[in-house]
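Bumping my old thread because nobody answered last time. Still need a sequence for this structure:
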């Protein structure tokens, strides 16, 4: 048996056993990460450069791109390194840092998506109050609250998880450091329950954000359907569709990965789902927004 005081490294789950498949995963992750870096970098540059995008939605889109870059840069480089050099190890400190930054960026992203939903609700349901409710000071405060929420959530989970005594080995059944897989190595019942309680609190807050998003979109769709002109309805829907698609991808992949029935669980499926919710959304988000946002497309053409 080992404990957390003597652990110096963890063993991550290998993406493949055969060397050819490991190199294939390396090139695949390299392509995804380069595409995400390029796309998010273009969005950051466009929002900063074009004054037409100096709006609340542009401001929040800039912060969303930062969280996407953070998520990609937290998990993918280590997976690429392990695939290229045929290893599965990660240091104890590296695992703690990876877990902290992953939950930091993921929590901040979900908070920002909730705020962006509020932006669409005010823009469509209360257009006369848009300038008052979403002024520059209010936007700055909401963005700061999203980042602070992500930081606090990540700090609490990381500190509690890595304070647990670990005596079930050091092999994690995941290609990056994630809380549920570290908890399986714990031999402290009280510490385990404490972390489960923290996860429950985070889940309740996330569910509250989900309910807010659903309620907001019900009000948005009711308001859009009352618009007399078809062109007006189309324009209103087109401004909401990218956000709705991004929220659906983030929520559906995350929920299915963690709440799927044990009867359909398998190492291959679990690995595919973990890639789906941790790597794919940050790479797809900029594409979804750039395809549907006319102002953003115009700014990218000018650049």
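Sorry it took so long. Here it is:
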């Amino acid at each position: 048996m080992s404990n957390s005081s003597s652990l110096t490294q963890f063993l991550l789950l290998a993406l493949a056993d055969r060397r050819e498949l490991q190199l294939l995963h390396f090139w695949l992750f390299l392509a995804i990460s380069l595409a995400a870096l390029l796309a998010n970098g273009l969005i950051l540059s466009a929002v900063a450069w074009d004054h037409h995008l100096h709006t609340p939605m542009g401001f929040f889109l800039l912060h969303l791109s930062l969280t996407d870059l953070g998520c990609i840069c937290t998990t993918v480089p280590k997976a690429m390194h392990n695939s290229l050099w045929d290893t599965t190890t990660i240091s104890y400190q590296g695992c703690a840092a990876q877990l902290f930054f992953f939950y930091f960026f993921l929590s901040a992203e979900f908070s920002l998506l909730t705020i962006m939903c509020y932006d669409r609700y005010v823009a469509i349901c209360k257009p006369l109050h848009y300038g008052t409710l979403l002024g520059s000071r209010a936007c700055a405060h909401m963005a700061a609250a999203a980042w602070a929420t992500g930081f606090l959530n990540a700090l609490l989970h990381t500190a509690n998880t890595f304070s647990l005594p670990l005596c079930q080995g050091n092999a994690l059944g995941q290609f990056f450091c994630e809380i549920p897989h570290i908890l399986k190595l714990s031999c402290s019942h009280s510490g385990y329950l404490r972390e489960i309680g923290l996860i429950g609190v985070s889940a309740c807050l996330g569910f509250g954000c989900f309910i807010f998003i659903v309620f907001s979109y019900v009000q948005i769709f009711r308001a859009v359907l009352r618009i007399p002109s078809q062109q007006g309805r189309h324009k209103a829907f087109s401004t909401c569709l990218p956000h709705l698609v991004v929220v659906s991808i983030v929520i559906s992949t995350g929920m299915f990965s963690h709440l799927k029935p044990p009867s359909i669980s398998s190492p291959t499926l679990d690995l595919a789902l973990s890639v789906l919710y941790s790597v794919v959304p940050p790479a797809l988000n900029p594409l979804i927004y750039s395809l549907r946002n006319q102002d953003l497309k115009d700014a990218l053409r000018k650049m």
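The longest strand covers residues 9-11. Let me know if any region looks off to you.
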